[in-house]
Amino acid sequence: MPGKYSLTAISEILGAKRSIAREVTIEHLLTDSRRITNASKSLFFALEGNRNGHDFIPELYAACVFSFVVKEDYQIPPELGNANFLLVKEVLPALQQLAAYHRSKFNLEVIAVTGSNGKTVVKEWLYQLLSPDKNVVRSPKSYNSQTGVPLSLWQIDAQNEIGIFEAGISLPGEMERLEAMIKPTIGVFTHFAAAHDEGFSSRKQKLGEKLKLFKNVHLLVYNQDQAPEEISEQLNVLKSFTISRKSEQADLFVFDWKTISGKTKFQALYQQKELNCCIPFTDEASIENALLCWGTMLALGADTATVSQRMETLNAVSMRLELKNGTHNCSIIDDSYNSDINSLEIALNFLERQKQHPKKTLILSDIYQSGLKSSELYKQVADLIKQNKIDKLIGVGKEISENQTFFQTPEKQFFEDTDSLLKQLPALQFKDETILLKGSRNFEFERISRVLSQKTHETILEINLNALQHNLNYYKSILKPGVKLMAMVKAFSYGSGSFEIAGILQFNTVDFLAVAYVDEGVALRNAGITLPIMVLNPEVTAFEELTKYQLEPEIYSFNLLEKLAVFINEKSISSFPVHLKIDTGMHRLGFEFYEVAQLCQLLKNNPQLKVKSVFSHLAASGSAEHDDFTFQQFNTFKKVCSQLEKALGYTFIKHISNTSAISRWPEMQLDMVRLGIGLYGIDTAIDQENNFLQPVATLKTSISQLKKVKAGETIGYGRNDMLEKDGKIATVRIGYADGYLRVFGNGNGKMLINGKYAPTIGHVSMDMCMLDVSDIEVQEDDEVIVFNEELRIETLAAQAGTIPYEILTNISQRVKRVYYYE
User: Fold this and answer.
1) Which NCBIfam families would you find in this protein's record (predicted)?
2) Residue positions in the annotated binding site for substrate?
3) Buried b / exposed e across 592-629, counting CB within 10 Å, b at 16+?
4) Which domains are present in the chain?
5) Is 717 noted as a catalytic residue in this protein?
6) Which of 24, 80, 425, 737 is the most exposed place for a label (fewest CB within 10 A)?
7) Residues 141, 490, 654, 700: which is the catalytic one?
8) pLDDT tens, residue by residue, 347-357
9) What pLDDT is stored for residue 430 in this prediction?
10) Is 490 a catalytic residue?
């Protein structure tokens, strides 16, 4: 059993002041109030950050978590007097201290992996290579941060023979704390690149900080070809194992490599002997990561033939949960490439956040290489499933079937293998449920995912929920204390999704959501969204739904206000919340300044309406040339609010800041801000050199057909484009009906294929368009990037003479949305 200590023992380890109402054995460490596992045996660390953990202690107590690590100045509420509190100077160092103590109790080989790119892949591949012979404990997913590392180390138990842990940093001083916890014996240094450069004064400083992880290792493995020049001077005190495709002096010198039928074959020299190795990948990143793993295994003394054999069977690493639309109104959470009890817990937490369907289903395969007896393992799995209140379990595999008596879900069925399940899948009649697929790689659960997912064409909009969360937290970090945040999810969340986006925003505790029309708000309520929702364009015919679904209308005209007042009065509803829109110069919707006196009188005559907020919209808050006008709008708005408050005799929420104003005009944050396009990584007010936002959306398609075309032959409708010399074109599966604007045709747009730009040629058709790929090595069905973090939406918008909003919102509903969370 991983970490298992009495609360008294933990208090002594931490040197904490304690208020222990009842002794309890702690098995789980919590850092997020929204992810509770076995509440009575959990210890919550009230970390401070974008969310102050101390604020959520009453909520956790109500969920039966009774043990907390808090700052010593925390005032324990009297109603929580029978809870357990450990009071420490700082909470994060306490968490790290406990993890370091737990790590020190075990004498095992520990591999620490750091670098800029490839950490998670290298860790997972080393696990695949080592686990047939060793009992291996590793970081779940990409848990490599100041909080992720201690949670990873807490998993270590007496049965483990080797540990593999990631370590990632973004600021100076962080690695020393990680090294003190991990105490690695072997280091692996992956590709060093620009990630997190902004946190350091120079690339050299960042390198020095990363290398602090290896100061006490007895062996360091790295690729000489990818290592910065400074690395040798900083590593000369360490014993190292080097890999190179350039230097014969490397410990593993790879002198030849060839790509054949989707595989890469290597020939290398090691200890004056020639070795051969093959991997099932051809991209450069995979080659680099695989060579690191090959070298690490050789450095550990593994049998060369066995290592070569296992390298050929390496599986692609998918560290992300994908949320897709399924058939029969189901949602599919696809985590079908790996299965262990730690990643199962993460996936179940993600499932718990999905409120769009009342029924939760888990399709789970056998779990391999856990190091536990089968009965003990599946008893733990059954407890985890029970805690997460799964309605239906479908077990796949011999071991889980043999242990089915442990599972007490309302519905359960078991199958010997994936083929048996697929034969019976239609009879299971999935409908109106959220289905989590969690399978070990060799069960090939991707086949189940294909059957259950909605069939759409191969153009896909991928939404990175981690990036969305990162951007949200960035804006939260620049808000003044107490300022609320309203997230704009109108127009299908700018084309990116509905309940999927609202769900992640609700999980991350925004204060309000805003939609364009009532039916959008109704859809969110039906999907389990409980946040206050403002409706920007309420229609008189939808007043009934406003009240039924507790939606709050924007009121922008006397006509609308008077009709709503009559309706609410007839319903005998009191204090119905409304949001007043003031026109301070945008001249789109809203009450004018000269109308405020009449507005005040009408509101006083209709006390059944309660003004919840008053707001206005800035017309050009991101443009310096219009700053005088922006300031004029702000002053007008303050005058209106003052007049309204005086007349009504009560206060309300005031908000005028949109995305670009949040950072450019901090004095305009007032009581609340409205965050829109910034959630998706786009903010024209932020200097690109200091832009910490992350692109959220990737639009990708694929090649339908390749054609050789002679110079002068016309291409596409209208016959107005041609190649200047003989070449080849690729027809790709996207057109203006998908949202790829017709203006992008005839070379005005470009897409990315295999890392190279391909310009359009000919007009964009309804369902497809053509690219000039004369100078690119491509095959039919190759992936094509329309936009991503490299070919950004802003670039497309500039090419089309429009704005990023239009690019995003134009992506049609027939384009499949895939939401992923890493």
Assistant:
1) alr, murF, PRK11930.1
2) 588, 766
3) eeebbeebbeebeebebbebbbbbbbbbbbbeeeeeeb
4) 5-92 (3.40.1390.10), 106-247+279-311 (3.40.1190.10), 321-455 (3.90.190.20), 462-690 (3.20.20.10), 697-821 (2.40.37.10)
5) yes
6) 737
7) 490
8) 888 888 888 88
9) 92
10) yes
